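U., I forgot to send this yesterday:
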Amino acid sequence: MWILCDNESTVDVFNNSIMLQNIRKSHNPIRIKGIDGNAIDVEEIGDLLGYGTVYYHPQVTANVLLFHNMAKRFKSVMYDNRQQDAFVVTQDDNTTFTFIPSKEGLYFYDYQHSINRTTTTTVTEEQNAMVVNTVEELQRNYTTRELKQVEAARRLYIMMGRPSRDDFFKMITNGRILNNPITTEDYKRAEAIYGTDLGVIKGKTTKKKPERVPIEVTQAIYEKQNIILAVDIMQVTGLNFLVTVSRSIKFITVMHLVNRKKKTIVEAMRQAITIYKGRGHAVTACEFAETEDRPIHTILADNEFAAIRDEMEADGIQVNLTAKSKHVPEVERQNRVIKERARAIMQTLPYRHVPKKIRIALIQYVTFWLNKIPKVGQQFSPRDIICGEQKIDYKRICQLPFGAYVQVHDNLEITNTMQTRTTGAINLGMTGSIQGTHRFYNLHTGEIIVRRNWTE
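Result:
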């Protein structure tokens, strides 16, 4: 996507709508005549980020910026063939971009460089968590004058008590404010840079009525499984987790361990077993044989579990220990996969510090999706086989990535106060509810909260 620099043109005109924002009808349409004598009536304009308003028509031959206008709008436009055969344009923030010659001798700038440019983010701390801020990078797309107008527009909007967008625009366009230098385009640029005003989100967000959820449950295809659990303790991000994997089905459970004491491990094991029991795979006898009424009959574990053999066998669970220094291959393989998935997410989070509760939730989030994806040779996912879960609803489950910063909507019983309607929070993933509720890390209290509505 090229932009040409032309000192023979009389207007800035583009044919590529992808490069422009807010394409609209012009109050001053023009007629452009090419060298072939054909004329085109241009009736639309659009905003080129970092430059300003240009004319737009899909049938013009190229995207062209008038050299004369560039010289006026930018800090400098330099050409020195002793240094480089190129026009070097310096913006108000001293960043530069270059128009280089094509084989035909036309000087162009490849707009793809702007799209591929890595977004620089800054972060601000709020109760042990970091919030992404991409404002600085977005501001580079506008001139100094446009940014001053953006700040003035935001200030006016706040001073007017944050009216509705339509009312605000009417006040501006209908001349209700005398000597007003602000235009609707200034406020639209403010929205492009800063998004919806935070005060509007916190103060105007209303409680939404939950949608009716049709439930279509796919029944578990295996009933009363003779399940063998492979067990190990996994250490990741400085935390310990008890991991169990059921053979053949490959269903995974992870339980956070506050320590590695015997009582803690036994409690975590019983929690994992309860998941199976709650879905009809109950332990009903103390027989060790693989019978229909003995769903979980064997646990394969490291030597670390020798201390809990008596407790497990008292619950009717036979404990088989691996040889010294050896590990159970099924669970070791899943440990590696869990760590890889968690690392992939952790390394892309924009936060300098990740609290313990978020790290625990990350492992649970990774495990949820591992259980939800069918393994090789499986028609149903491990979670569907064990729990009989329904299919994932994209609109409810797949709308928010782990670690995303949002304003969650508070469920206030009393709504006629000045109390904020939303709270800053970090998404920790789904609760498993079919209504699409998510767990969030509350940035003000550090607690885990559950919400179904938010503003990203």
